[in-house]
TrEMBL record:
Keywords: Kinase, Serine/threonine-protein kinase, Transferase. It comes from Streptomyces vietnamensis. GO terms for molecular function: protein serine/threonine kinase activity. CDD domains: HATPase_RsbW-like. Residues 30-124 form the Histidine kinase/HSP90-like ATPase domain. InterPro entries: Anti-sigma-factor_SerPK, HATPase_C_sf, HATPase_dom. This is Regulator. The keyword Kinase applies.
């Protein structure tokens, strides 16, 4: 379980990089694989940062892999689901996290925690870079 916001983004990125290495996504043997790993780390930063900014920090960070896909889940205590804000200029800072998810993740969304728990889980999925082995099974 994660608590607060201090250092949590870098801890989640480090954990993700270690998991990707264990699962055979790193070291990358192609430019595409290297870019995909950077995309995954950016996506992790975005969803964890959003939990910090809008929900007091993440409560849980989960990675799963299988069938050529990586799934990232970040749960927090806020019942408010991500929603696209009014269009704004890409030149202005902030407010672009969902656009990053739309462009880099294969799929993403959010769901209520369920079972009477307050809060939500924001999830995203990314496909394994082509040309790589399958890594260790889940």
């Amino acid at each position: 379980m994660l608590h607060g916001t201090r250092g949590v983004v870098s801890r989640c990125r480090d954990f993700t990089a270690e998991a990707l290495a264990d699962w055979g996504w790193i070291p990358a043997d192609s430019e595409e694989a290297e870019e995909r790993v950077e995309d995954v780390l950016l996506l992790v930063s975005e969803v964890v940062t959003n939990a910090c900014l809008h929900a007091g920090g993440p409560e849980e960070f989960v990675l799963r892999h299988g069938d050529g896909r990586l799934r990232v889940e970040v749960s927090d205590a806020s019942p408010e689901h991500p929603r696209v804000r009014v269009s704004r200029s890409p030149a202005l800072p902030g407010g672009h996290g969902l656009m990053v998810l739309d462009r880099l993740a294969g799929d993403w969304g959010s769901r209520d925690k369920g079972a009477g728990a307050v809060g939500k889980v924001v999830w995203l999925e990314v496909g394994r870079p082509t040309g790589r082995g399958t890594g260790r099974p889940e």
